[in-house]
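Hey, resending since the last one bounced:
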Amino acid sequence: MNAAADAPSPDWAFVVSELIQARQTVLPKRLVAPGPDAGQTQAILAAAAAAPDHGQLLPWRFILVPADQRATLAGVFAQALLERDASAAPEQLAQAREKAFRAPLLMLAVVDGARGDPEVDLFERILSAGCAVQNMLLMATAQGFGSALTSGKALKSDALRACFGLGPGEQALCFVSVGTVLSRKPARARPTVADYVSTLDTMS
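The structure tokens again:
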């Protein structure tokens, strides 16, 4: 008798529901080492490949920021602040630099509005990228890690675009941070289905 074959199948709907509900944004300053190891990181990145992708354009990519490049990113954040405010105080610049050193796993999500078929709208490309990001967040959650998405005005700066080598048609969407949860806030109240779903009424 094959015990594995006779074992009951997991209730995947329950498992997926629990995983989705467990995902919670944890601010990068509360994400500490240890982060995902090489195998876990690969699994997180591989999860993105299952995202919907009209025409298989692969209109998004992710750029990892390893530990030895955090100081470079810190300089970019400071330069981006100076691009917006040339009179930024030293403490403001220090705060901008410090953000680069948060979370053991850090990557930039980038969407390409020009890659492949021009008939595939930018909004559809961004939606595909969002699905890829959510897949990665869920995989990180399944591994026991916390995660967060962060944005900000620095994403539009010339300094950041140059640092990450973004092409003319590419836009930085957000940073993705993953790590061990140091502390977390109470889970926020989530909207109910009735808050965001309606039914199309047939016009007479």
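Residues 24 and 186 are 10 Å apart (CA to CA).

Sorry for the duplicate.
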